[in-house]
Automatic annotation (TrEMBL):
The keyword ATP-binding applies. This is ABC-2 type transport system ATP-binding protein. It is a peripheral membrane protein. It holds the Pfam family ABC_tran. Gene3D superfamilies: P-loop containing nucleotide triphosphate hydrolases. InterPro entries: AAA+_ATPase (IPR003593), ABC_transporter-like_ATP-bd (IPR003439), ABC_transporter-like_CS (IPR017871), ABC_transporter_ATP-binding (IPR050763), P-loop_NTPase (IPR027417). GO terms for biological process: response to antibiotic. Keywords: Antibiotic resistance, ATP-binding, Nucleotide-binding, Transport. GO terms for cellular component: plasma membrane.
Amino acid sequence: MYYILDSVLDMTGSVLAAGDTVDTPRAGPVIEVRDLRMRYGDKEVLVGVDFTAAAGEVVVLLGPNGAGKTTTIEILEGFRVRSGGHVLVLGTDPADGDEHWRSRLGVVLQSWRDHGKWRVRELLAHLGAYYKDYSTPGRARPWPVDELLEVVGLTAAADTRIARLSGGQRRRLDVAIGIVGRPELLFLDEPTVGFDPEARREFHDLVHRLTDVDSTTILLTTHDLDEAEKLADRILILTRGQIVASGSADELSRQVAGESEIRWTCDGQRFVHSADDATGFVRELFRQHGDAIGDLEVRRSSLEETYMKLVRAAEGSA
């Protein structure tokens, strides 16, 4: 959810109000998108986008700048009205989403407008209070502040004013704000920008905790392909307003024609070979040399190589 602290408004301009408990999530996909279209004047930004996301799934949306990623996410969040197509998020058309529905979402932006005089604990307690009336038996809201601080690694900075946080600490706070209401669906836009390697690993652990323990569905955009490969259950590649590929990193690499590189040692010598059928080659290698084979390594195309090939192929055929 998006907040301007002076009046606690969401981006639609409506004041968050107390209400009845949120309906329990319906069975079926958390996100369901069919033939999603978006047009600005004569320009089609999205041209028949189709995908789904299940409970507890991490879906990473990749694509070059201008591909339509931001537009897609803003439609799913309910902050942009689509030109056409079928979209359901948590069983509701985002264009009709009310405050009950919004309480079930979390958003982490690339940057967040904050008030530097607030202390970290005070801010999270203040924002969390607005979720209290949307708590359900299956999902207590908000997240207890001290527990949340520990989860995002800000316990030591709990009483620090926001203006004095480091860049990495501010990013952790962004994440904490996004999950303070224990969302069922979390949107993450370049979440680890400014993180050092240790903080990035801790964030990855947090993502796995959210999906494994709370069954939170996560839709994430990133330009860090290594991060995408580590986190994604499924990767969507969006270019020219269309999903041109969908699958795990391994499944996508199999879609791209190309040879695998096999490296091994035998009797103290190192060898490198490329083969279309890596499994068959390795099987024959062991049949011929048996235990003399050592340091075997099979390398398929990296996600970066796969991504570039798929995007170039899609843009070349357009």
